[in-house]
Design goal:
Elements lengths: L8 H4 L8 H15 L7 H8 L3 H8 L2 H22 L3 H10 L9 H8 L3 H22 L5 H24 L3 H4 L3 H16 L2
Helix pairs in contact: 2-3, 2-5, 2-7, 3-4, 5-6, 5-7, 5-8, 6-11, 8-9
């Protein structure tokens, strides 16, 4: 049994949406997976949100697992590209952490949080984070041997995820009540220290 999930009006009405069907399905999947746990998200909900028959979802992505993996990868791709392209890596980390994750935009962090406890989703999460985040970040860490750079990149990912959880999900007052400029300065100091180790 699946739960009925609301979806944005633009996705629910394909006549008013210029996006190709496959992209509409992917956007709907991101919305649903960001709003609910993996097990509670159904392909019929995603199809309804995208304004297509569930057969189109199967034809376009195969299984729920494959759709989830692709939706999560697409959701984190822009953030990972920012980290790969930014000349100032600590500044890029701050930008990602301090962005309001409840606002429209990349849905990677909410998808991650909602799906962490799911054994079915964990492999897709691990693969996507390894390939889309850790590997490119490790390539940017000049100096250490490849195995060390990969380990440091994974540790940075853990730091970012933990800080994001405290700031955006738990909304710890020690972080959310701090003046934004002071919080950014503190985070920059932490990331600069970590990245010079």
């Amino acid at each position: 049994m699946t739960i009925q999930h609301p979806c944005p009006a633009a996705l629910a009405d394909p006549a008013n949406d210029p996006l190709p069907t496959r992209l509409r399905i992917l956007c709907a999947a991101q919305e649903i997976f960001a709003a609910t746990a993996y097990e509670s998200a159904g392909l019929r909900d995603i199809a309804r949100c995208a304004g297509v028959d569930v057969a189109w979802v199967h034809r376009s992505f195969g299984s729920k697992e494959q759709l989830f993996a692709e939706a999560f990868r697409a959701a984190i791709r822009d953030d990972c590209a920012l980290l790969s392209a930014s000349p100032d890596l600590p500044e890029a980390f701050c930008t990602l952490l301090l962005r309001d994750h409840r606002s429209p935009g990349p849905r990677g962090f909410p998808i991650l949080i909602r799906s962490l406890s799911s054994p079915a989703a964990s492999l897709a999460l691990k693969d996507a984070i390894t390939q889309e985040f850790i590997a490119p970040l490790a390539a940017r860490l000049h100096g250490p041997a490849p195995a060390t750079a990969t380990r440091l990149a994974a540790l940075l990912g853990g730091i970012v995820a933990g800080l994001g959880l405290c700031h955006n999900v738990l909304e710890l007052p020690q972080m959310t009540d701090a003046p934004p400029d002071q919080l950014r300065a503190d985070l920059l100091r932490i990331f600069r220290a970590v990245l010079t180790v």
